[in-house]
Design goal:
This protein is mainly alpha-helical. It is built from 13 helices and no strands.
């Protein structure tokens, strides 16, 4: 994760020259809000007939093949050198993490509604905060402590949904190895619906290429705390789209748990940038 350290310099720049880049950056942040929030819906549609890990692999591979030559050319133009070994290593680590995260989300959404999945994923900054406090003995401030408590309460409330809906299974979220065993051997392209192919195309073009590029522009231009707001806007978008398009049931318990989680993330990420 990258922490911006040049915000005071941007604040001292003249208003005129910085106005246009600011509008572009805000437009990019809106793209991140909407598109990354909608990817949960696309994943849910995709895994209807497409194996989740195959979909995640195809999404990242196709997007990577498209973006790699563009990124390499841009890097050479900007630095007049080839990427160093540690930069290749960093990119490789990020790629593996993205593939793993997308695959796990796909497996989860085979049995968990897209909106609920997005709310649970939104708690990642809270878990990182707790791990940081436990492993590094970091002292938590009042706001992060309250946020952590609210987030745990929201997760506890959402966990109770498993007793209400038989289709929601904790095993569907966690058993990655058993779900992936022999997955590619069971793939039959003719059995994959047009909806799933369109969902994969949307994830490649908009979810990975457009939104990830927009995020890079936004995080280089806007304050980190501002860009970090995507962490609690994305799940709201996901819940609304899941309810409106897929008719996912929106219960009072889900609304209550969602409010607690979003409020908790607001308290935590306003001073800490969340990972994606």
């Amino acid at each position: 994760m990258t922490i911006q350290t040049t915000e005071p310099v941007r604040d001292e720049e003249p208003a005129g020259p910085s106005r246009r880049p600011g509008l572009v950056a805000w437009g990019c942040l809106v793209i991140v809000y909407i598109v990354w929030g909608s990817t949960y819906l696309a994943i849910r549609v995709g895994v209807e007939t497409m194996p989740p890990l195959m979909m995640a692999a195809a999404r990242n591979l196709i997007a990577g093949l498209i973006l790699f030559p563009i990124a390499l050319r841009s890097a050479r133009s900007a630095t007049h050198r080839r990427p160093m070994r540690r930069e290749w290593l960093g990119c490789a680590v990020v790629g593996v993490l993205l593939l793993g995260a997308n695959g796990v989300v796909g497996i989860a959404e085979q049995s968990v509604p897209s909106g609920l999945t997005a709310l649970l994923i939104a708690t990642v900054p809270l878990w990182l905060l707790g791990l940081d406090a436990a492993l590094n003995r970091t002292r938590l401030g009042l706001a992060p402590s309250i946020g952590l408590a609210l987030g745990l309460a929201g997760v506890a409330l959402l966990s109770g949904l498993g007793h209400e809906h038989g289709s929601i299974s904790v095993a569907g979220v966690l058993l990655v190895m058993s779900a992936s065993a022999g997955e590619f051997g069971r793939v039959h392209p003719a059995a994959i619906s047009a909806r799933s192919w369109l969902a994969l195309g949307y994830l490649v073009v908009f979810g990975s290429i457009v939104a990830f590029s927009a995020y890079g522009i936004a995080v280089r231009t806007l304050p980190t705390a501002t860009v970090a707001t995507y962490a609690y806007v994305n799940p709201v978008i996901a819940v609304l789209l899941g309810s409106l398009i897929l008719n996912e049931r929106l219960t009072p318990a889900m609304i209550g748990g969602g409010v607690l989680i979003v409020g908790a993330v607001v308290l935590v990420v306003r001073r800490r940038p969340p990972p994606h």
